[in-house]
Design a protein that fits this description.
CATH architecture of the domain at 2-94 and 165-245 in chain A: 3-Layer(aba) Sandwich
Distance between the termini of chain A: 33 Å
Helix content of chain B: over 70%
Radius of gyration of chain B: 24 Å
Strand content of chain B: under 5%
Distance between the termini of chain B: 55 Å
Number of strands of chain B: 2
CATH class of the domain at 2-94 and 165-245 in chain A: Alpha Beta
Number of helices of chain A: 10
Strand order of the largest sheet of chain A: 6-7-8-3-9-10
Largest sheet of chain A: 6 strands, mixed
Shape of chain B: globular
Helix content of chain A: 25-40%
Oligomer: heterodimer
Order of helices and strands of chain B: HHEEHHHHHHHHH
């Protein structure tokens, strides 16, 4: 079953043609990795799925993007509803200057939840899902800024999970983390796919190999090759994919 | 020891650096020195007239005796009045410009106009206030007219302060909030404003300092030459510290005899402004700590 499906997606930054007709489908409860050199369009493509590109002036998008069967660019879609359904974790951990508890509760509060007990339960569950609970359960009232970088990133994951999205987008989630935190985060991604569809952009091919079920290789705004991760890395069909994964460019 | 540079080249570099830093240091100190001299000058000459009587009574004997209580009250009224007007409008405009307005000709136009407004001489604000508030709106010479005029003067400062404080907030916080399904308003209200708050409040208090010392805008709109009774409504005239200072130094009945009173008045005015600045500093640190915690 497909969770995210795009048909002939083109994206322009002003005159610059950044995505050139991308058609692909991402399976439910699987991890799909986007790889490719800097500027190939993989992050731009990812940000189409929760309409983060709307925030940039001069962006124009053509084509169709369906999430769980719904065209997310049709006019009846409320962007804040969509973003509740499609969570996102960013490259640099960006917790709010609030307590650990309030960081996780934030998404619930802005979406209208008032029931305190419900919020408390959900915060605990989300922190457990993000493998952070044991480290922070005694200091939930402390500022999120007191956590280490790796903990902050897991807090941001917990924050995204708290509103129960169906799809979780991760834009190079470990590029600002040390190796140990990276390993923890990767382990977490592995566990999360049971309940979520995960799309991850990564610069690190080993990471794509470790965490993903499917991998898509982007180059110059095009989707060059998309296959099962094992297949793509062991038996790439396109010469450009082969060159990239063998380190001949990028 | 040297790594290839000849000793003389080395010495020359050192010397140049030392001379440069000496000049920088000297100039920085001279700025401090100027402030200290001004404060000291006023303090030495003004402190002798500061007494409970000076602070709590109205002027007597052609303003050569008594105190400046009505002027203190008048200035406080004007500061509060102008801020009631300038803060809401200025802060909301600043939020609009930085958070909501798309980068269009309209936004650029509003910003340009705000900057131009800041560049208008305060006496022009005074004239405008007299024409509009005193005559056109029929408020007469009154606290209301004076406050509105001073408020207009403070407006660009408040807008700029708010704008700068918001601009300093990293965009990743906004994006993080929007990505959780928050609306732009929720993001502004719950994430951006609390973070910008310490800096906004500092700027606001500094603008209070500016407003409390202005003379020209109140000249034709509110300030009374001599009015020993306190105001009973916003349509009353009041005395104000800067104007009182001007009056007793230039056009009092006996300028020589009221000289000491003038320094005393200047002293009180400076103390009010300094207190405002100290308060601003304290609030910034207080809220700065608090923001991180909740």
């Amino acid at each position: 079953m497909n969770s995210v499906e795009t048909k002939d997606v083109h994206l322009y930054y002003g005159d610059f043609h950044a995505l050139k007709g991308i058609t692909m489908a991402m399976r439910k409860n699987q991890v799909t990795a986007f790889i490719g050199p800097s500027g190939c369009g993989k992050s731009t493509y990812l940000r189409c799925f929760n309409r983060m590109n709307d925030l940039i002036d001069g962006v124009r998008i053509e084509g169709e993007i369906l999430i769980d069967g719904v065209d997310i660019y049709k006019s009846s879609i409320q962007v804040d509803d969509l973003r509740k359904h499609v969570g996102m974790v960013f490259q640099k951990p960006n917790p709010f200057p609030k307590s650990i508890f309030e960081n996780v509760a934030y998404g619930l509060r802005v979406n209208g939840t008032k029931d305190r007990q419900f919020i408390e339960e959900r915060v605990e569950r989300s922190l457990k899902q993000a493998a952070l609970w044991d480290e922070v359960k005694d200091k939930l009232k402390k500022s999120a800024f007191e956590l280490s970088g790796g903990q902050q990133q897991r807090l941001c994951i917990a924050r995204a999970l708290a509103i129960e999205p169906s799809v979780l987008l991760m834009d190079e989630p470990t590029s600002a983390l040390d190796p140990l935190s990276t390993a923890k985060t990767e382990e977490l991604i592995h566990e999360l796919k049971e309940n979520y569809t995960i799309v991850i952009v990564t610069h690190n091919m080993q990471q794509a190999g470790r965490v993903s079920d499917y991998t898509a290789f982007f180059y110059l705004g095009e989707l060059v090759e998309y296959a099962k991760t094992k297949t793509l890395f062991t038996n790439p069909k396109d010469q450009r994919t082969q060159n990239y994964i063998t380190g001949r460019f990028g | 020891m040297s790594f290839g540079n000849t000793p003389s080249a080395h010495r020359k570099k050192r010397l140049t650096q030392n001379i440069a830093f000496f000049i920088f240091r000297l100039l920085s100190f001279s700025v401090v020195a100027i402030l200290v001299v001004i404060l000291g000058f006023i303090l030495v000459r003004g402190i002798s007239v500061i007494s409970w009587e000076f602070l709590s009574e109205a002027p007597r004997e052609g303003m050569t005796e008594g105190g400046i209580f009505p002027a203190i009250v008048g200035t406080l009224c004007l500061v509060v009045g102008s801020m009631l007007f300038a803060f809401p409008i200025g802060i909301l405009s600043g939020i609009y410009i930085n958070e909501y307005a798309k980068d269009s000709w309209f936004k650029r136009f509003v910003k340009l106009m705000t900057n131009n407004l800041a560049g208008i001489p305060s006496i022009v604000f005074g004239l405008f206030g007299m024409a509009l508030f005193v005559h056109q709106f029929g408020f007469g010479d009154s606290i209301l007219a004076g406050s509105l005029t001073l408020g207009l003067l403070a407006l660009p400062v408040v807008i700029r302060t708010t704008e700068e404080a918001l601009k300093a907030i990293d965009n990743s916080f906004r994006i993080g909030s929007l990505a959780l399904g928050a609306t732009k308003w929720q993001t502004t209200r719950r994430v951006v404003l609390p973070m910008a708050f310490p800096n906004i409040i500092t700027g606001l208090i500094l603008s209070i300092g500016r407003v409390s010392g202005e003379t020209a805008p109140i000249l034709f709109t509110v300030a009374a030459y001599f009015l020993p009774k306190l105001p009973s409504s916003v349509f009353d005239q009041v005395m104000a510290l800067p104007y009182h200072l001007y009056v007793i130094s230039t056009s009092g009945t006996n300028i020589e005899a009221s000289r000491a009173m003038a320094y005393g008045t200047a002293f009180v005015l400076i103390v009010i402004v300094l207190l405002a600045n100290l308060l601003a500093n304290w609030l910034r640190r207080y809220f700065g700590k608090k923001v991180k915690m909740n």
